[in-house]
Amino acid sequence: MGCSKWRAAFNFGHLKVHSKLPVFFTMIILFIYLFYCLNGYCESLPRPVYDQRSNLQTKIIFKDGQETEQLGAYNASPVSFVREQLSDLTNSDPPSNNISIANNFGSKKFPQAIIIGVKKGGTRALLEFLRIHPDVRAVGAEPHFFDRFYEKGLEWYRNLMPRTLEGQITMEKTPSYFITKEAPRRVFSMSRHTRLIVVVRDPVTRAVSDYTQTLSKSPGLPSFQNLVFRNATTGLIDTSWSAVRIGIYAKHLENWLRYFPLSRFLFVSGERLVTDPAGEMGRVQDFLGLKRVVTDKHFYFNQTKGFPCLKKPEGSSRPRCLGKSKGRPHPQIPSEVLLRLRDFYRPFNLKFYQMTGHDFGWDQMATHQSS
Predict the structure, then answer these.
(1) Would you state the torsion angle of the CA atoms of residues 280, 281, 284, 288, taken in this order, to the nearest 10 degrees?
(2) Is residue 124 a known part of a binding site?
(3) Ordered structural domains, the chain, with CATH
(4) For the whole prediction, is pTM greater than 0.90?
(5) N or C: less crowded end of the chain, CB within 10 Å?
(6) What is the pLDDT of residue 158?
(7) Distance between CA 192 and CA 17 in Å, rounded?
(8) Which member of 120, 291, 297, 311 is catalytic?
(9) For 81-107, what is the mean pLDDT?
């Protein structure tokens, strides 16, 4: 009888030991997990992308003394949003003490599309508008690779590009490429399939705008009429002056057509980019093979500056307009000087219309008085 009681007590104790084993192993697992987290290993795991959406804000970047702004994909589809956010991760510098997988997202590629011109035509506005699109990744500052830094090599150029995912387009903007003699051959050597965008504007207005920009930096500059004429008596235009030379679009286009067919070009109207930004952006997105994400809902017209601005994105307290250097008032220039310059450009404009198959209507246009 005594043995039976002892045996029953032993079996009961055995059951208690078995019931405590799961608790014991659970405590060991929790202890190991806490040990790894305290030593920083858990931080190497990235936050879920969808958790970052609430923190998405406009990012302001200062490059070459200019303020530019990258707008979040607040209007994009979920897939495009994730793609944009993952691309942003690749451009951030991870803490050196942590293991990071961010640099495994995307790769640096040569640009598939380049805005090659023209200066004071509206290239900055076009690039800022394009940046709204989640499938466009662009360099902020102008690389000037094909006109100034070509000797640094293609690998140097590619390293300037942002990381992109499959389906995204890499872009850059350098307006001086359009007038650089060597640029077409160099771009062609990189890729004959490069898409080329040229933003053009009434060459008379463009020349005045160019002069206005230079005057703001050099107040002692001679008057516009003193610079535009080689001989004031005969009214001979000085084509060596860059402000005049840039506007001879047909001459520069001939140089590019030696290497690229017309189908590789899109000519954007600088005037329509102001009066109908959504319409021109639709053409640009079609040319780049992108879904029409950037539409009229993104723009409003700023009466003070005389330019369209981007409506404020979610999380931002103000809309996005171009910088103070845009929209400068033009100096007063004698009408006869502008008329003479318009007569000079007329045959070049007509040739450009024929080459591109598009009449931009500059010869019927009054000269605008804002830059």
Answers:
(1) -170
(2) yes
(3) 49-364 (3.40.50.300)
(4) no
(5) N
(6) 98
(7) 76
(8) 120
(9) 45
